[in-house]
Amino acid sequence: MNVKLILFLFLFGGLIIFNVNALPASPLPLVERNDGGDTSLGTWKIVGKSGVNAMHAFLVSSRKFVFVDKLEGNDLKRPDGVSAISAEYDLDTNEARALSIYTNTFCSAGAWLGNGTLVEAGGDNGDANFRSGRQTVRLYDKTIGDWYEFEGVMPTMRWYPTMLSLPSGNVLVVGGAKAATGVNKDSINNPSYTFYPPSGTVMEDFSLPFLTETLPYNLYPMVHVIPNFEGKTLLFIHVNQRSISFDIGTGKVVYEYPKMPGGFRNYPLTGTSVILPLTPTDNYKAKVMICGGNKAYEITSEGEASCGILDLMTDKAQWEMNDFGGTPRIMPDATFLVDGTILFVNGARTGFAGYRKGGGANALWVNENPVLFPVLYDHFAKTFKPLASSIVPRMYHSVSSLVPDGTVLVTGSNPQGNVAIDVKYPTEYRVEIFSPPYLYTKTPRPNIISLQTFEINKERIKVYYQQMVTLIVQVAGGPPNFTASLIHHGFITHSQNMGQRYVYLEVENVWTDSTANDQYIVTVKLPQNPTIIAPGPSFLYLMNYDAPCVSGAEILLNEQPK
Ligand SMILES: *[C@@H]1O[C@H](CO)[C@@H](O)[C@H](O)[C@H]1NC(C)=O
Ligand SMILES: *[C@@H]1O[C@H](CO)[C@@H](O)[C@H](O)[C@H]1NC(C)=O
Ligand SMILES: [Cu+2]
Fold first, then answer.
1. Has the keyword Disulfide bond been applied to this entry (predicted)?
2. pTM score, two decimals?
3. Taking the domain 43-439, which CATH number applies?
């Protein structure tokens, strides 16, 4: 491509963004990477800087994310002049605002409460400017737009735990180590779980011997709620090639599933997992999909190139193994798109999760050979499709998340203990937006105008399980064909999206709205109970044929008050 053409594409891309969305011009140059105008594999764009490295990310409204870093010398400063370790990122201005965290967050986790507040727990020792985060619980409340911290609340220390939104509306914290480590070991293992808020006055640990049996690759356990109609809280837990279902009510293992073929999937041989989209047409039968990882804790070891799918409703099921789109990958992120496909992105071809060893020219990168392209998984066809490549390696401490406009935010990468810029794999602040192929369809995109008469995305709209909700939807181009879904966007860290969930909704009726052109009244039925999708914030999405809605609608889902 010659320089003129590149310039033309650059200007053209910039103009489209400016006109269509009427956004303020970004202070950073936009880099359009649309592979010569072929949009059929999606496009990448660098849109801004994250302020802090995005070790964790979570979506707090239709246009805002919060990022959380470990303790390090970021350029973004708190009001007291100290480097911030958390930032709110605005997708309309592409600016980061420092948030107030005063305890060390390294390497903690998070999940949403049913009341819409996010809980983040754990961390490491403090320093001159930060207090210890070892037993800290932090709450992010979007009405305040900032954090508040409760120190000394957790009964034990947990590095690399998993957190999960439970059907009760509380949050589970499970596993982890009592000290920072590359690989877990008996002397620091924390084979237990706890709840926030606690049912009593203080948080209490409950024993989980399975996490003793599964050393050493049991950090950031893969944990999901299994849907059921018996009012149980059943968890799927996968660590170190073993999987169980566990009943939180009785504290007992219900099933041990067959051992998973292939390598290891948990930190630092990090893979990723999702519950495949749940649907009312088969009564929400849950299947888990686990992908990537590594076979050995060695720098030169090639990443795991397999994925497995397991039916969780029976202990007789066998792992259905598939390749991972033809590429070995350690530290992949798995992100649901609006149409129920899964985007696997980020990570490396070799090595394991962790920081580089040594510095300068002798630096040894323990995760190497970045995989720059995502693969898109279609769970109906059971096929992977490789998509357009980014130019930014995203190694340890990187994230990806669906944005309600159908794009994907991809940021982070920081395979070192402190900010390092002039190195092969720097502390990465560039925020990228990936526009998947479905955004380039010619089919008109539906625009959700209102939900239960409320204009969407002003504030969370309160809805209830089993409720029939009414949407007003505009879409041009003749009779639409709508499918509907709920997505809980979760909390993303270390290639795990804690609580991420995709649930298809029944579309009950579509009427033409005679008060306006191209407008429809659509009713959809919300899921029966909180084991299908946890209470708390989610987004309701529509597709018209292959075209995702202009934006999902943010809701706060709970049980109908009695
Ligand atoms: C949600 O619940 C937590 C824990 O009980 C509480 O601290 C927080 O203030 C609540 N948030 C809202 C928005 O009510
Ligand atoms: C509408 O969508 C549904 C679900 O994807 C599909 O089964 C059906 O064939 C579609 N109808 C038309 C007319 O395309
Ligand atoms: Cu980490």
1. no
2. 0.93
3. 2.130.10.80
